[in-house]
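Module 6 notes. Inverse folding takes a fixed backbone as the condition and produces residue identities as the prediction. Think of it as a translation problem where the source language is geometry and the target language is the twenty amino acids. Below is one complete input and output pair. Work through it position by position during the lab.
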């Protein structure tokens, strides 16, 4: 799971009973920067946190999250990104349409008693970043 403490608490309330025992491992921006051997900026650390939170609900036990995993993700994120020029109003309209679709997918997952799919969570994170950039 990825989100603020409040958001994660809400997700846990929906997924587990009050008396169900849990073991929770917490990753923070500080933890990520301490574990990785490379210099990170805040945006990179946040992207890694989102990727950690996007691992399937029970996938951590099977896949694990290690220093090696974080290094691979960071290398992948740092690859050169192709840039295009798009009219800001059109980009905002498309981004808001994508946001509505992703929120609908998230709602359907929760209505079905499932966790938000990682791809949907990553998409919502991308939408939030895009809307922030467009507002600047």
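Target side of the pair, the amino acids:
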């Amino acid at each position: 799971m990825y989100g603020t403490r409040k958001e994660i608490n809400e997700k846990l309330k929906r997924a587990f009973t009050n008396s169900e025992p849990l073991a929770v491992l917490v990753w923070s921006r500080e933890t990520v920067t301490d574990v990785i051997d490379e210099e990170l900026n805040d945006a990179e650390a946040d992207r890694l946190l989102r990727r950690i939170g996007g691992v399937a609900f029970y996938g951590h036990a099977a896949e694990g999250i290690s220093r090696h995993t974080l290094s691979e993700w960071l290398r992948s994120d740092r690859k050169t990104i192709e840039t295009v020029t798009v009219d800001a109003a059109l980009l905002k309209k498309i981004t808001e349409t994508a946001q509505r679709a992703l929120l609908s997918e998230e709602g359907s997952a929760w209505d079905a008693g499932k966790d938000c799919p990682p791809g949907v969570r990553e998409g919502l994170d991308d939408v939030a970043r895009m809307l922030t950039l467009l507002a600047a």
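Reference fact for the lab report: The chain is about 65% helix and 0% strand.
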